[in-house]
Amino acid sequence: MPRTKQQLPTANAPSGFGAAEQAEMQRLVEELDGMLNRLRLGAIREQLDGLLEEAARRQLNLREALAWLCAAEVASKEQRRLSMAMKIAHFPFVRTLEGFEFEAQPSIDPGKIRDLATCRWVANGDNVVLLGPPGVGKTHLEVALGREAVARGYTVQFTTAMELLGALVKAQQQGTLEMRLAQYAKPKLLIIDELGYLPLEPASGHLFFQLISRRYEQGSVLISSNRPVEEWDEVFGDQVVAAAILDRLLHHSHVVTIRGDSYRLREKRRSGLFRPQAGGSSSAGIGGEPPPTPTKEV
Ligand code: ADP
Ligand code: MG
Fold first, then answer.
1. Residue 141 CA, ligand 1 centroid: distance in Å
2. pLDDT, position 283
3. The pLDDT value given to residue 197
4. Between β-strands 220-225 and 253-257, what pairing exists: parallel, antiparallel or unpaired?
């Protein structure tokens, strides 16, 4: 950002300073500005006057003042890294673990999720498989865990199974499969949402297998599905390919199975828009369809 020429801080230019001293001080201010710019210390450069005044007010010694300035720069750089990495990750929305109501989904062990939030599994290149019917919070947890991984400095990419496989099928047709596979193999954590919701093209299983093999023991995959793994041969339309995919995916993995009601329908039920089914709980179990809803999902 272009910066207006700094005026000599009044604190540094007590009245009585001669023109020569004032000019020398101005030269120093400009030189420092140039050096901070060259060193890319943008936060210090932009807030220098305020930071120096604050350091003086706190009566910091030189070392303390230097640490204080560096801390401001580090905080600003970290903030920029975070917002850039969040953008690159392409999360569909913002969701956090703090915003997840564990009481609403008793089949989830909060301890297990908090353990996953440490991202040790990402460091180890392990996988996480989230299984459960629609609306139980799979995408919410994927985004929340993905954000934790970004915060810890890992590269993360979020995609849906449809988007991923669509891109791989297209790349194969255009002779650019190698490039696409390399691209999807790159992030330390690849999040693949909604496997099994829509039928896949016949070539998809092989392409998915190639991707999973490439990432195997290198980078982590966090995948969610509304279908239990026993039904993945139907999802991929090929028993052998599905077995090969599961073999690699599940080798070093944590499987979280969510059973229970859709959170969306629960909200609607609360507001009286939707009546519970006869017999109480409408728990659909994995792979089950949610009860019909009279209003559009949001
Ligand atoms: P799924 O991916 O399993 O279909 P989502 O994660 O998309 O479900 O959840 C649907 C909506 O309900 C989202 O807006 C999500 O944030 C919210 N949600 C689901 N479960 C919870 C929960 N236990 N606490 C808070 N919000 C939840
Ligand atoms: Mg979802």
1. 8
2. 35
3. 87
4. unpaired
Residue nearest to atom 20 of ligand 1 (CA): 137
Q: What is the DSSP string of 176-209?
A: -HHHHHHHHHSSSEEEEEEETSSPPPTTHHHHHH
Distance 263 CA to ligand 2 centre (A): 11
Q: Which ligand is nearest to the CA of 130?
A: 1
Taking CB atoms and a 6 Å cutoff, what residues make up the pocket around ligand 1?
Answer: 95, 99-101, 104-105, 132, 134-140, 263-264
pLDDT in tens, 30-79: 999 999 999 999 999 999 999 999 999 999 999 999 999 999 999 999 99
Q: Which residues contact 236 (CB under 8 A, 6 or more apart)?
A: 200, 204, 205, 208, 242, 245
> Quick count: other Cβ atoms within 10 Å of Cβ 64?
12
**pLDDT of the residue at 231:** 94
Q: Which residues of the chain have pLDDT under 50?
A: 1-11, 277-298
Which pLDDT score, from 0 to 100, does residue 16 have? 65
Of 229, 255, 257, the C-alpha closest to 243 is 229
Judged by DSSP in three states, 190 sits in strand
The angle, 0 to 180 degrees and rounded to 10, between the axes of the packed helices 19-38 and 42-57 is 130
